[in-house]
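To: structure subgroup
Subject: Chain for Friday's discussion

All,

I'm putting the inputs and outputs inline so they're searchable in the archive.
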Amino acid sequence: MNTRILLVLLLSIAIALFGVGIIAPIIPIFAVDLGATGISLGLMVAAFSISQGAMQPIVGPLSDRHGRKRFLVIGLLIYALAGFAYTLATSVEHLILIRLVHGVGSAMILPIAMAYMGDLSPRGEEGKYMGILNIAIFAGIGGGPVIGGIFLDLMGMDSAFYAMTALTATSLALVLWLLPSRIAGGEQRLEAPKLTTFWRMLHNSRIVGMLLPRMATMMVMVPMMAFLPILMTQLIGATGTQVGFVITTRTLVSATLQVPFGRMADRYNKVTFLLTGSIIISIILYLVPFSTTFFQLIGLCAIIGFGEAMVWPTLAAIAAEEGRYYGQGSVMGVFNMAMSAGVLIGSVVSGSLMDSIGLNYAFSSISAALVLSAIVGSILIKRDSGHHFP
């Protein structure tokens, strides 16, 4: 039974995020065509993060109490509608509004999928199981940009958005027919009002230490997803297909290594994994704007994917461990709220720096923030290395 649930969950998430990946290299170019500046590009990313971040700590605890399936269904439905809505946008303001609604849908997808996976993972194998989920996430998002670039070059932007809608509808059908609302043994263990649980989590130094690098690694997503297509166009006159290949390289390398690094994080020192991966990402992110060829960018993005494969399952494993006490939905909601906060902060900072002193500084500033957050987070995690459950 659990094997079937696992397969359905992974397949539905991979399909839905493949659709998201298809539009990843398209949206920044589309926005610039509509007259977007660095600030408005930042606002477009921020709109998604604001609505996503506001909803995640609400949806997570509710899914602990009322079942997860209904929220995942609503989120996928919003994704499908958003894909169609992009084709109707005629201004940057329209894109910002669509991204705001799109973020609400996202708040009901990734945190709920992670909560399902936390319910399924045996004790002591959280890193492995979160690594498996991350394969679906990265394979979906990573495989999409190449197809999106081909759609852009051959059939125009609207075709990519229609493809996203069709793929999300397929994922929605799988969830409706085959995924249960609850998994035996996955109920919340700490019985407390939502706000009480939220504040207890934020007073746990291990959780705070996990949230800081989670936020910073998501800040990295802003220059790598929103500004890299623009940088490639400026530096090497890249085509949509080339942009898609570069983005795909990073995510597919990360996807390939999620499970082996997740298993290693279960067995060895999580703080060491976190620091090492964060330093690798930071150094390479700083070097990206100095690249001069397509193949240099592919190589650098592959190394970033290697670093992400060390960091992401490690942080998710810590979250799943804490979820056994606070409730998987509650912890994953806060975990992904930090993700949204990172994208929001990264978009505002990167967009402002791009307009004021140049695109290169959008990469270097995020690089420095990642190292600092990883160091502080590691100290906090080591301060409280015990668990609340037997």
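Points worth raising on Friday:
Residues 2-177+194-383 form a domain with the Growth Hormone; Chain: A; fold (CATH 1.20.1250.20).
The radius of gyration is 19 Å.

D.
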